[in-house]
Amino acid sequence: MANFKGHALPGSFFLIFGLWWSIKYPLKYACKKNKKVFSIGSKTGFQRIEVIEGAVKAAFALIGILAEQFVPDGPHLKLYNREEHQWDHLMNWQHSTMYLFYGISGVVDIVTHTTKAVPLAMDRMMLSIAVFIEGFLFYYHVHGRAMLDIHVHLLLLVSVFGGSICIFLEVFHRGNIILELFRSSLCILQGSWFWQIGFVLYPPGGGPEWDLMDHGNMLFITMCYCWHYAFAIFIVAANYGLVTWFVQTKLKCTQPMEMELLKSREHESDDDI
Amino acid sequence: MANFKGHALPGSFFLIFGLWWSIKYPLKYACKKNKKVFSIGSKTGFQRIEVIEGAVKAAFALIGILAEQFVPDGPHLKLYNREEHQWDHLMNWQHSTMYLFYGISGVVDIVTHTTKAVPLAMDRMMLSIAVFIEGFLFYYHVHGRAMLDIHVHLLLLVSVFGGSICIFLEVFHRGNIILELFRSSLCILQGSWFWQIGFVLYPPGGGPEWDLMDHGNMLFITMCYCWHYAFAIFIVAANYGLVTWFVQTKLKCTQPMEMELLKSREHESDDDI
Amino acid sequence: MANFKGHALPGSFFLIFGLWWSIKYPLKYACKKNKKVFSIGSKTGFQRIEVIEGAVKAAFALIGILAEQFVPDGPHLKLYNREEHQWDHLMNWQHSTMYLFYGISGVVDIVTHTTKAVPLAMDRMMLSIAVFIEGFLFYYHVHGRAMLDIHVHLLLLVSVFGGSICIFLEVFHRGNIILELFRSSLCILQGSWFWQIGFVLYPPGGGPEWDLMDHGNMLFITMCYCWHYAFAIFIVAANYGLVTWFVQTKLKCTQPMEMELLKSREHESDDDI
Amino acid sequence: MANFKGHALPGSFFLIFGLWWSIKYPLKYACKKNKKVFSIGSKTGFQRIEVIEGAVKAAFALIGILAEQFVPDGPHLKLYNREEHQWDHLMNWQHSTMYLFYGISGVVDIVTHTTKAVPLAMDRMMLSIAVFIEGFLFYYHVHGRAMLDIHVHLLLLVSVFGGSICIFLEVFHRGNIILELFRSSLCILQGSWFWQIGFVLYPPGGGPEWDLMDHGNMLFITMCYCWHYAFAIFIVAANYGLVTWFVQTKLKCTQPMEMELLKSREHESDDDI
Questions:
Q1: Which of B64, B122, D219, D256 could bridge across to B99 with cysteines, CB 3.0–4.6 Å?
Q2: Are residues A93 and B223, on separate chains, in Cβ contact within 8 Å?
Q3: Per its UniProt record, what PANTHER family does this chain match (chains A, B, C, D) (predicted)?
Q4: H or E element: which one contains B80?
């Protein structure tokens, strides 16, 4: 859907996931750090969360596919126009394909965390592939458009391929909080950038059009991308701080003495460079 | 051989290997997981399988070289045409070179798994080099052809170089089931894409020709590549499920009690994130 | 600031940091090697140094932002020129953005080394991101300039992206002296190259102008870049030698006997390849 | 020196080093495998070899620099031609710069293996940098030449950058026989390819000139590069086999009984996938 909503929809999906991850992973990290206190129920709890996350991901993907296929000017599952001897609504089909891989990733998440047959790292591998496919299709997607249109999509690819590499590294470094926070920030960046693309290419509410061939606009938009990322870093940092503060407050209330001991011991092992 | 058969032949080779890997590695993984039950004979068995695999690879490579050289319009081992002062059948020679490196990889497989002198990881290294050489030659292969012809071959390179990197990682992470399944899926993708290239460039049975300069065709073929990969993932997942189900069924019949204990213990160690 | 000072300022920042790192890391390495002798106070001392380093980095970034914004011909925080309907002083804004990310990196350094809530590797991750953003903005920065102008900036990118990758590796290999020295040398290279760019593009003191379109100049400048790096390597090696010599001299004065024992034991473990 | 000798000289250097490495590393590997038998003197012996290797490397680099500077049509250390206001003999100066970094690498080798102050991995890091600089300078070296001239140099870059990455990996995986053999093969490839470039661009003995703009020649030369690599692999494999056979023969003569025990034990630990 080459309009504002077609960019706002995936943008919202990515924002929701990015924000959620920026809460989940710090929480997991804080719980793991204070293992003895939070041991009861936390493991099965986190496993249930992973399953729900996979289900939500698959649901979002399904919504995306349905929206792309059955909007009024969509292809309605028709791929080839026999009268005009050309492919029908290829853009919508490409977007559907992107959603399809995120759907597969969601299903793999569910299977990985409900059964024991699949190795754990498979959820990361499949997500990494899904993100790569998104970038791969976008790369060939923008051929032959206006300069600024191409540029905003190419900028998106930086966060997409960055995310794919980051998630692939998680296959080997599972549970690395640095990579998890990095992924969260890239996901928020992608989400907010989809909204930005929508505002630039299809100004809502009859706002002024952007000059798609102006070199100044291109320089500005590149810089704007960095500001989006600074904003994403700020969000992730704020969420990390809040979650850490929340966990420590709750800890102090329950077991003030024991906690202090644990904390000091952890500092020592952390410092060991 | 720039015709349908010249693409169907390597395509079939890759499909056979991809399918075989998508059975072998899950089987190995399941046996390793249930080590105490399957310990008898499995190690020497798998070693013999590796030797056979190497022999089949070398045989396929030899068939490929012979086919490229001795088809009616082939070079018949002649490299330089002295009358016309130009190289003779360079395409066939390039394909022969690709097969040659797969042949070397097959021989290295055999030597690695029969003698003890060669370090184990050498089989992966040599396979990685063989796949890289394939991609390297393809990259310079398509210079100056029609747009769609170039594009379908460049798409192939994604799976080729992806496979080469994946196998190179296996040098350091040998026996990582994630990488092994990833490799299997890329190999199936390559095989099915060779068939697709054959159908696009040389439609068999007098089918309609593809317009090699149409932009819509290019967008479609990119998407089609992703569908092929979704299909490859599905095949690998199905084979993985079948093998795992088969191993567990067989286990339950023989030692139901002991098995349960083993399984629960494994879950615990797997969960340790 | 597209003038000599605008390149000398960041150049000096990078030179100061590079030189400082080429002293700090060998010192840390020598102290760690002679652990038993230097144990008292060294850990808290190095931690305090990290905090100060972060504060200096943030201060430099602030100076850079203020200089870019409030020089006489700067934007003075004005982004859009409503009269002429175009963006205002985009170059200065881009430079401010680069400094901003270094500022964030400085703040993260301080937080990481004062509180215990943030994982240690976060300081490296954020520095890696800051360096990447610098390279990212430079890459789109030089569009449409003279050949030699583009070339000197692209050469800079080699050290920038090299540095970013090196620091990212440090997330996983923290405390690896090889990577730390490599980073120091790249940082010195970047600093001295900023000065070189200033001298080439804005010859100070009314020196002769460089012909920005001459192919010979381009070849020379590429080679000159390598000489800068040879010089950076020499500086790092000299500092490494001096620091090591200083630590060992100081050791010999205090505990000559014990030292010998330690040294011989270390040699043995070092040799174990 | 843009003539046959100017390519044969570095080609011979690389060939000598490649061949030497393809003997040294298998020998080291075989000795390490049979540790208990070969323990006496082997460690100090190998260390002395490393020092000699560094000295030879530095000597070769010095010969290269002197040859580039003081051939009859060389720059004789003159960099700028003040009469004609242009740089003097930039090609020779670029080659000298390449040799300079190999010289630094040689010196670092010597220092690393004679004193204990420098971390061991530094020799690999510096060699990796030297190889990278070679590729970096070659990349900007060939601008504006004939098609085939550019192509043969770009092909060289594959082995140069491949070698640089391989050596950089050795910083982290020191003593990995796979990487060491890979490096040997790439070094032999580089050496033989330098000779090939000499034969193509400056046919010695008044042979027929190559048509530098012919597309067929370009395709052939790409394939020829792969054959060179197949040849390099063969040489490394042959040397590996000879060395292994030699070590085992010598072992059998001295301690036949003890050896058998060691061997069988090793097989077991090797098999543990």
A1: B64
A2: yes
A3: EPIDIDYMAL MEMBRANE PROTEIN E9-RELATED, TRANSMEMBRANE PROTEIN 45A
A4: strand B80-81
